[in-house]
Amino acid sequence: MKSVPRRLAVLRGRQFRLFFTGYAVSLFGSSTASVAVAFAVLDGGGGGSGLGVVMAARIVPVVLLLVLGGAAADRLGPRRTMLGSDALRCATQAATAALLFAGHGGVWALAALMVLWGLGEAVFLPALDALLPRIVPAADLADANALSGIARNGAAVAGPALAGLLTAAAGPGWVLLLDAASYAAGLAALALLHVPPGPAADGSAPGLPAELRDGWGEFRSRRWLWASVLQGCLFNLLVWAPFLVLGPVLAREHLGGAGGWGAVMGAYGAGAVLGGLVLLGRRPGRPLRTVLAVTAGWALPSGALALGGPLPVVMAAAAGAGVTSIVSGSLFATLVQRHVPPHALGRVGGYVTLGAFAFGPVGLALAGPLASAVGARTVLGWGAAWQLASCAAVLALLGRREPATAGPDPGTAPAPDVRTAPVPSGRDGGRGPSDR
Q1: What is the pTM of this model?
Q2: How far apart, in Å, are the Cα atoms of 289 and each of 53, 66, 144, 273?
Q3: Which of 4, 211, 274, 423 has an alpha carbon within 20 to 30 A of 245's alpha carbon?
Q4: Around Cβ 358, how many Cβ atoms within 10 Å?
Q5: 125 or 385, which is more confident?
C-alpha cells in the first residue's frame, strides 16, 4: 500500500492536480459527444451519408490545422491556447445542443458546428504536451503522461456506454449539453493554473512561415523522432485503420456481432488503463527502445482476427494492444517533452500528430475495397506482419542509441521544476514557447 502514494506522487503538486481534474472531466464529457452526434444525425434522417459528412467535418480541420495549432501554442503559450480551445468547444457544444432542442439539427448545420469543434481540437492537441513540462517536474513527466493516458482510455470506455443510455432516455441534446458543461469545467481548471513562463526562442518573432520551418527543422533533425512518427503513420494506414473497419465485420460473422465487438474494444480500453497503472512510478532504463519494442503489440488483435481466434483470444489480444498504446504513448510523449526545445514543443507536436495520423482516413477508405478483393483476414494478417517487420526495422535503424537521459538535447532549456521555481505574479499562461 505504501507504493501507491509514491506512484501517484505527481498528484501531490497542486498545479498538475488541478489541471488533471479539469482534463479528466472534459475528457469524459467529450467521449459521450460522438455517440450523441451520431444519433442526432440518424434521428434527423441524415442516414449513413449524412453521418459521414458530419464526421468528416470534425476530422478534416484537425488534420489540416494541427501544425498551425502547434505554432499558436508556441507563440501564445499552451495555457492561453488551451483556454481559447476549451471556450470554443464549450460554446460549440452548447450551440449544438440548442440547435437540437429547437428541432433544427440538419446535417449541414451540424457539420458547420463540427468544423468549429474540430478547430478547437486542432488547437488543443498540440498545446497539451507543451503544457505538462511547465507544471510538472521533469522527474514526474512520465507519470503525468501515464495518468493522462489512463484518463483518456477510461473515458473512452465509460463515456460511450453512458452516452448511449442518456441518448436513449433523454435525447442527444442533453448529452451535448453535458459535454458543454464538461468543457466549462476544464476551462475553469485552466483559468486557475499559474504557469511559469517558458524560455523564449532566440531573436524576435520571425513570422509564421519561418516559425513553421524552424519547427520542421527541430522535427527532422532528430532521427529517433521522425523514424518513430513514420512507423506510426504506416501503422495507422496499414494496421489500425483496417482493424477498425474490418474488425466489426468479422465480429458480426464470428464473434457474436455488436456485443462481441464491444467486448473487444472494452478489453482494449481496460488493457490501456491497467498498463498505465503498471507504468506509474517506473522508469525504463532505455525508454526509446522500450517504446519501439512494445509497438510489436499492435500486431496482436489484427493477428488474432486473421487467424480466426475465438472471442476470448481476440479480447486478450486487444488488451495487449491497449497496454502497448499507453506504454508507448506515455514514454514517447515524455521523450518529446524532454528532448525537444521548449520553445518548439507546440510545432513539433503538431508535426508529430499530423505525421502519425494523416494517412489514417486513407486506410479507413481503402480497407473495405481491399477486403472485398483479397479477404478481410488476409488484409489483417498482412497488417500484423507489417507491424512486426516495421518494429524490427526501426529498432535496427536506431540501434542502441537513446536520446540523452539527463534532460533536453544540448542547447535547450530544461523544463522548470515547479516544486521549487517561483510562480510570477499575474502569469497569463505563457507568451513564449511551449504540446507534443
Answers
A1: 0.74
A2: 40, 27, 20, 22
A3: 274
A4: 15
A5: 385
Cell of 339: 528532448
Q: Report helix, strand or coil for 305.
A: helix
Q: What one-letter code names the amino acid at 191?
A: A
Give, in degrees to the nearest 5, the angle at Cα 229 between 376 and 118.
Answer: 80
Q: Which CATH architecture has domain 207-410?
A: Up-down Bundle (1.20)
Which alpha helices (H) appear in 136-207, and where do they start and end? Answer: 141-170, 172-192
C-alpha cell at position 307: 487467424
The residue count of the chain comes to 436
**Rounded Cα distance, 251 and 264, in Å:** 9
Sign of torsion over alpha carbons 220, 222, 226, 229:
negative
350: amino acid identity, one letter: G
How far apart CA 134 and CA 143 sit, in angstroms, is: 15
pLDDT in tens, 241-298: 888 778 877 877 888 776 777 778 788 888 888 888 888 777 777 878 888 888 889 9
**Range scoring the smallest mean pLDDT among 5-14, 110-119, 231-240, 409-418:** 409-418
DSSP assignment of 242-268 equals HHHHHHHHHHHHHS-THHHHHHHHHHH
pLDDT over 70 percentage in the chain: 86
Question: Could you confirm whether domain 10-197 is CATH 1.20.1250.20?
Answer: yes
- Residue 246's SS3 state is helix
Q: Give DSSP secondary structure letters for 356-410.
A: HHTTHHHHHHHHHHHHHHH-HHHHHHHHHHHHHHHHHHHHHHHTT----TTSSST
CA separation (Å) from 406 to 43, 139, 335, 372, 412?
55, 10, 11, 51, 12
Per-residue confidence band for 418, with pLDDT thresholds at 50, 70 and 90: very low
CB atoms within 10 A of CB 200: 17
> If you average pLDDT over every residue of the chain, what do you get?
79
Where do the DSSP E strands lie in 7-166? none
| Grid cell for residue 303 | 493477428
Q: In the chain, which residues fall in CATH 1.20.1250.20?
A: 10-197, 207-410
Q: Are 72 and 346 in contact (CB under 8 A)?
A: yes
What gap in Å lies between CA 195 and CA 79, rounded to an integer?
8
Alpha carbons 320 and 322: distance in angstroms, whole number: 5
Residues 6+ apart with CB under 8 A from 91: 180
- Euclidean distance between CA atoms 290 and 327, whole angstroms: 9
